[in-house]
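Incident log, structure service

09:12 report received: a user says their structure output differs between two submissions of the same chain.
09:20 pulled the input from the user's history:
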Amino acid sequence: MTSENKLIFGIHAIEMAIKAGEVKTVWLQKDAQNKRLLKLLALVEKAGVTLNRLSLQELDRLCDERHQGVVASINAVQLKTEKELKLALQQWDNPLILILDCIEDPRNLGACLRSADAAGVTAVVFSKDKSASITPITHKTAAGAVEHLEIFQVTNLARAIEAIKAAGVWVYGTALSDDSVSIYDTKFSGAVAVVMGNEGKGLRHLVKQSCDHLVHIPMAGEVQSLNVSVATGVALFEVIRQRAK
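09:34 re-ran on a clean worker, output below:
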């Protein structure tokens, strides 16, 4: 864990971070009557976290986002390396891995992490370059998922995919192309990794080439694509549905 501090905000995100033991200091609106804030205050006091009571105006100066009356200082998130990924692949049994290729919006990244946590994925892997980092907005959008996921940040995503394949994991890239197959006509079983591409450009060429299969989510309407976080949820839960059989 790095010693760098980071501010996060939002009631649920901070509640989850406190429960994970990550919070160092909390700044909470001193005249708040919101039941959720009062419940959070009790949790802060029980956890023995340093507490500061500020006015709404002071909180606004501390954080210019929609903070819901509470801001917290945490240690920066521990992101594991490609070397650690290779070691972990030797230990996982029948993993489900989410791979994110250049997700640029921190809100989309947070929403993808939230879907990953809800789906019970084994790990999330994303690239260091051309990708959003885990920001306070990511924390809020993820609603506590960041603290509960194994997250790996790698320098070369195509190389990481090759390592994942070498460990016996089938890698499915999502792409709307002539050679992709509907996820509902694809048999997902055993160890699976799902690769989601950039919001506008989709999967990069080398990443797409590294995948074992290309799949897509059929669209019934005129719109031919979903938000990446929505598509992530649809794809992951279809894998879970099939593997449960």
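09:41 both user submissions now match this output. Likely a transient worker issue. Closing.
09:42 reviewer note: The first strand starts at residue 5 and ends at 9. The radius of gyration is 20 Å.
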